[in-house]
Amino acid sequence: MRISQSLIANISRQSTNRSANALVEAQRPILEGTSLPNDSTDLARAQRVHSLDGFDAELDRLTGARNTVRTDLKSSEESLASIHDIVVQARDLALQMGSDNIGSNVRKDAAQNAQRLMEQITAIANRRDTGGAYLFTGTAEGQPPLDGNNRYQGNDGIRKVEVGPGVKVAATVSGHDVFGANDELMTTLGNLVTALTNDDAASVRATLDDLETSRQRVSTVWSDVGGRLSTLDSLDDLTLSLRTRTQTERGELVGVDIAAAAPAIQSAQTMLEAVISTSQQLMASIGKGWFGS
């Protein structure tokens, strides 16, 4: 059976729900009023509320981090989709113009179209995100990924951001992953422009395999970014469940003694946290392309 991101999320969700239900059962004496307040347990109640408030604040911090990363990754995803579409157009153009039945004037006119496609990719690649950083330069986010000669000038660094307890997601994309280790995408597009300009049908056909390889490369990175976004969505679901549980427990604790129920609640809470931790480790070990250590 193929282990997919959806399967991992479902396993995590089911395990978390079972442990969360156990926590609810441990809290039942409080909910049913069978634990009555007395002065000796005020400190225990206060400490538990303080712990829940701290955990809720941490959830807020991680939610903010996820939202920032999501914005950056969505910008990258949209740009990759556009680049992929342009590469497909260039490949289709090469396929059409590679025919020996195409006249030289038609081929030379097509060279202008190929040049425009190349310029469109350059413009998209050198686009900034909402925070002013460039999308495809690795960690060198202050400079455009492509220079005046359409050569990559970024790096292969990865900026990893903690988006869940112990879970980090790569928030950046290396241009080498998009354009090729040796600038293959832009080089192939330049070769296509030259071949069309020179009315060289054989050279036009020679670009087809390289264009398809570039398309597949872009598609792979596009899918990878989509996977990272899916991970963020799964963590949102988990956070919502945790936040609901902590806020419910906090509300019930105010003015209610937990002396009798405290050991059971602590045991159930520990189990819930252990399940969450195990789920995160499973996601991290399988999604190696998405998570940092």
Q: What would you say this structure looks like, in words?
A:
It is a single chain. The chain is mainly alpha-helical. It has a single domain, classed as Up-down Bundle (f41 fragment of flagellin, N-terminal domain). 69% of the residues lie in helices and 4% in strands. The protein has eight helices and three strands, in the order H-H-H-E-E-H-H-H-H-H-E. The chain has helices spanning 5-31, 42-97, 104-125, 175-179, 184-197, 201-206, 208-253, 262-286, and strands at residues 160-164, 167-170, 291-292. The longest helix is centred in the first third of the chain and has 56 residues, at 42-97. It starts with a helix and ends with a strand.
Kindly summarize this structure in a few lines.
Helix content is 69%, strand content 4%. By secondary structure, it is mainly alpha-helical.
